[in-house]
Fold this sequence. Notes:
The structure holds two protein chains of two kinds.
Chain A: H1 3-12, E1 16-20, E2 23-27, H2 33-42, E3 46-54, E4 60-68, E5 71-78, E6 83-85, H3 94-105, E7 108-110
Parallel strand pairs in A: 2-5, 6-7
Antiparallel strand pairs in A: 1-2, 3-4, 4-5
Chain B: E1 3-7, E2 19-25, E3 28-35, H1 43-47, H2 52-59, H3 67-82, H4 88-116, H5 120-141, E4 150-151, E5 154-155, H6 166-186, H7 188-194, H8 202-207, H9 212-216, H10 224-227, H11 248-271, E6 290-298, E7 301-309, E8 317-321, H12 323-327, H13 331-334, H14 343-349, H15 354-358
Antiparallel strand pairs in B: 1-2, 2-3, 4-5, 6-7, 7-8
Amino acid sequence: MSDLERLLHAIAGEAKVEQRRDGLWLTAPALDEVALARELLAAGARLSTMTGVAAADGETEIIYHYALGGIALNIKTRTRQGQLPSITGVTPAAAWIEREIHDLFAVEFTGHPDLARLVRPPELPVGFFRAPAT
Amino acid sequence: MPYTIPIGPYHPALEEPYKLSLACTGERVDGVEIEIGFSFRGIELLAQRRNYIQDLVLVERVCGICSNVHAMTFAMAAETLAGIVVPDRARYIRTIVAELERLHSHLLWAGIGAEDIGFQSLFMEIFYLRERVMDLLETISGNRVNYGMIAIGGVTRDLPDPAALRAPLRELKAALEHDIVPVFLHDPTVKARTAGVGVLTREQALAYGVVGPFARASGLAADIRQDFPYAAYAELDFHLVTEAAGDVQARVIVRALEMLESIRLIEAALDRLPGGPLRSSEAFPVIPPGEVTARAEAPRGEVLYYLAADGSDTPRRVKIRTPSFVNIPAIGVMAVGQQLGDMPLIQASLDPCCSCTDR
């Protein structure tokens, strides 16, 4: 197991690390997001972005996409009661990324300094990307 | 006495619709608030309601300047998920079009940068050179922007006459080497306006996750063409350019040297252009269920696409992360303590694109 995989297991416990065609994938429903962000920033990894995907039960899957040199890291977790801790305090790059996911999917990032409207047109409600595709 | 100056969204420096509120004391900027979203079109949502072929056309219109790289990254995501192998000739053509796109984008930026510091004759000279690049793109694709060159599994059309690209490229290289790059590197006026202005330190660049020439000018040696090679870059001996100073001058130098590297890459790709098919198949691509990410180096930095497929002809989720989305927030740290008169140049130096940021 590489150093990186050891690091990931240390943060995410027994979560599965998969090597796919596009990089490493880790699925960890119970994840310490802030610890992850801190460890990866210390390791020199760059947060590319976070993706929100609406789940059928009203929660949202959140995927953290990192780049560490030539390694792509994708860490998937999901919101608990529509909430997730904000990593903006550790990684300023997350400030706008979390605001956008809040706008589009109504996720509350607890501890975010200012979840104000970013890309959402003011006449549309928070979470409007969740609407059914009909 | 402190006051606030609003700049934009009808923008004096770059015609990009975003708004800055600068809190100033005298001529000194104390703080910046940034507002975006004026060009929001919901492209991700639209992409999730159209099939993969329609999406190639749609995502090409995320941005007018880096249109090709969006279509290419979307196609790369679909190809990786489906295990589609792009034929060699198509990979090389993708590289040539991508580098021509980088050239016209950097030239546009350089011309506007020159105009921002009042160097009108340099602006004219650069835009004349840029027209040569637009002519090449038009002979290849029929368009100046939105080339329609990308298919899932390859490219849509061949280069009509690869040899005819050589002479214009040589002229462009000569003009860059003899006229433009020396001015950017050595002209005292340019240096006076750009050296020490709008510094972003390496630590700040890492924490803010900035990308592209903007990051490389702060000493970060990261470029998707090197770190996650795609198209034909792994075979063309790509060299990335970095500078350490992190000021506007460093960004000017990085982009100027990248233009020369782009020309070298195009010439190398033409030298080694393989024969063979342009697409893996003429049939409609079948994208199986799953999820995937794909990255490419747009002129402004890393573009990342996340694609989730459910096996139908319409993607379940398309997430588009553009370079300007992570670069623009850095204005908040770069501008503090700077002079109000330098603000147009400082913003221009990160080469913001609001179409990309807002989608």
